[in-house]
Amino acid sequence: MIAYLKGKLAYIDPTYVIIDIQGIGYEVKISLTTFGKVKEEEQTYLHTYQHIKEDGHTLYGFKEPSEKKAFLELISINGVGPNTGLMILSSLSVEELEQAILQNDHATIQRVKGIGAKTAQRIVLELKDKIKKEGISTGDGSAPGFIQSSNKLKQEALQALITLGFTKAQAEKNILTVLKKSGPDVSLEALIKASLKSSS
């Protein structure tokens, strides 16, 4: 199995990329979340999953390990194939998906194209306990889970705000407020700036 690819970004589209590694182009399907993170890169590194069927091999790529983990959890569910898993992760951030599962929010999952009521219920039913058991708390009051896509971002912003004179509690509160409004794809600089404004 191909676990990751590191090479030149030869072509990029919102749904797939071609990575050139020593003259060989690997076509990799990606989510919109990953697209947003790699679109400005010349060299890229993607965590990959190789799906093998009789009629071909397909590579799926993810910028963050947590997104790949969420994808693998999704496709372990009966009725959720790789393309559906990718569609879910293109429609919902990994954190939004986790929150929907933990809160039994079937409606949010059903809003994803191609997801019916039964599939949404199955996703919640099969992943809720797994998220609770295997989750690692971020320590900032947010729900635990297999989703840690923005954990590093939060920690870096937290350190910056503490350095700027905030208490840890106030810094954490501001960061969470901003992330709820902006989503997990906000840049570190934008997160820090908005967190500074949040306290004024």
Low-confidence stretches: 135-149
Return the string of H and E elements: EEEHEEHHHHHHHH
Q: Please give the alpha-carbon distance between the first and last residues.
A: 51 Å
- Beta-strand residue fraction: 15-25%
Radius of gyration: 18 Å
Strand order of the largest sheet: 1-2-3-5-4
Work out the helix count: 9
Helix proportion: 40-55%
- Strand segment tally: 5
Indicate the overall shape: globular
Mean pLDDT equals: 85
Main beta sheet: strand number and arrangement?
A: 5 strands, mixed, barrel
Helix/strand-derived category reads alpha+beta
Protein name: Holliday junction branch migration complex subunit RuvA
GO molecular function, one term: DNA helicase activity
Subcellular location: Cytoplasm
Keywords: Cytoplasm, DNA damage, DNA recombination, DNA repair, DNA-binding, Hydrolase
Question: Which short descriptors sum up this protein?
Answer:
single chain, alpha+beta, 5-stranded mixed β-barrel, 9 helices, 5 strands, 20% strand
Structure description:
- This protein has helices at residues 32-38, 65-75, 82-91, 94-102, 106-110, 117-134, 151-163, 168-182, 188-198, and strands at residues 4-12, 16-21, 24-30, 43-53, 56-62.
- With 200 residues, it is an alpha+beta fold.
- Helix 2 crosses helix 3, helix 7 packs across helix 8 and helix 7 crosses helix 9 (188-198).
- The protein is globular, with a radius of gyration of 18 Å.
- It starts with a strand and ends with a helix.
